[in-house]
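Hi F.,

I've been meaning to write this up properly since the lab meeting, where we talked about keeping a consistent format for the predictions we share between groups. The idea is simple: the sequence comes first, exactly as it goes in, then the structure tokens exactly as they come out, then a line or two of notes. No screenshots and no reformatting. I'm using this chain as the first example so we have something concrete to point to.
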Amino acid sequence: MSSPKPNYGGIFDWDNAIIRRDELNALSENPDLWNDPAKAQALLKERNGLENLIGNYLLLDQSFKDNMELVEMGEAEGDASIVNEAEAELAKIAEKLRRLELESLLSGEADANDCFIEIHPGAGGTESHDWAGMLLRMYMRWAEKAGFKVELIDELAGEEAGIKSATVRVSGYNAYGWAKTESGVHRLVRISPFDSNARRHTSFASAWVYPVIDDTIEVEINEKDLRIDTYRASGAGGQHVNKTDSAIRITHLPTAIAVQCQSSRSQHKNRAEAYSMLRARLYELELQKREAKADALNATKTDNAWGHQIRSYVLHPYQMVKDLRTQVETSDTSGVLDGNLELFMSAALADRVKGKTEAMEG
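Output, unedited:
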């Protein structure tokens, strides 16, 4: 018996998803599958992702049918309350469908992975440090609201406010796929809380997103290309943290990429986490090179200053957050800074997919 098709349209290719899931189920039953553990893990990861997507579509389809029946029943009985309640549920279903349709586009080789988000302030001292701290909170709140697990890997506090740098790990299915379009420079305009004359200030901070990679993805690192430094961790953690060189910084000399970790009291654990971050950064760099060749996309990692921002957050003289790539904007600045980012992420993801499709068709 074939699987039922949802009776709504959209960009999700239902037939191919069912076929591919059945293929993966058959392959997973092969007793020789685990002769190649990396291949087996990749296969099961893809199958589980498809099962999750298909299962959610079926739940939406059933809910759609149930609420359509309620609308018909309410209209037949002249009960406006039933109709209104069912229509409200249908609106929620439409919103969930839109998110699932976008998730079906997350087909990149690392989209399903966990991710790291690095935050760095631009020039401007206390102002930019405070803005970087606000960005850190925004992304942590977004991850929590999206149902992801968030772990602060590294944080260097600003001298007066905010942060000098921070890295968080976001864990959950499609974490990288959703967050990847957030890489870039973010601009804030506000009345400075640090200016006694209450003047308007413009600050910059950057967010860089890269995927956590597992053993199924090979990244070659030559140990002689690494410089490893140890230092005393800063911030909370008690006397042990302050008295031992447990924090680790690894610099990849050929690319000048540097990562650091101080989340654990164990130097060995911090070294392992930093090495994982470095592998992820190098992999993300390779993904950027491939994407640039495929669709001539210019790199977004440019100067952390005016003219290179991807999004502007204006708190004065009016309230507006605007994405400069998609032109999507909202006046709900407090909601955005509290982690309501799906509006921007969805638009950027759809825009990126559209650009790739046009490039292939051209």
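Notes:
The mean pLDDT is 82.
The two ends are 40 Å apart (CA to CA).

If this format works for you, I'll send the rest the same way.

G.
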